[in-house]
Amino acid sequence: MTDMKEQVEMTAEERQEFESFKAERDRKRREQERKEQRQQYAEMVDDEVSTSIPMLRELSEHIRMVKEVIYGNFKAILEMKSEVLGLTRDRQRSHTFTTSDSQYRLTLGVRSIDGYRDTVEDGIEMVKDYLESLAKDERTKSLVTAVLRLLSRDGRGNLKPGRVLQLRAMAEESGDEKFREGVRIIEEAYQPTESKRFITAEYKDEKGAWRYIPLGMTDVD
Prior knowledge:
57% of the residues lie in helices and 14% in strands. The chain is of the alpha+beta class and 221 residues long.
């Protein structure tokens, strides 16, 4: 018995219509697959985020509680430190405590954001006037320019306190009253804003090197 194969002959127009139909069918299938994948992705994100957030909230609350306990425990120690040193007001922004065997070290402090009152501009102008009066030749102009860089501002438009300290040392050394007064005005205009309390903890490893205990999410590998 001879196998009979029926062959359907299509015109060029019919062939084109058939190919267009297949292409559209494949396009819709791929579109549906991508839609299902997006839905699956969204469901996975929902599940994992919903699972992670409660754990992180619990961790955050635990860290807050431990922080409060440590600060509470050290309150009496800080008060005693002020009494022993005869301080009427604690102006330190951080306190470091080390065990007698030098194996553990703890630092408690407050982060601050630098800021200055408007009077800082008067002090800056006085300092600039004095320094620019020294520029007599190319060499002194170069030195004055270098010193003026100490008055450059950071991204928030503030002077850097460490550089002001350098200026103060220069002013004292110069003996010029205008220079010293300008620096005093700058220092008196300093008005930092307290931000967050922090704690850092360290221990010595077997080689005697200090190692930080990672306390932040970005610090832990």
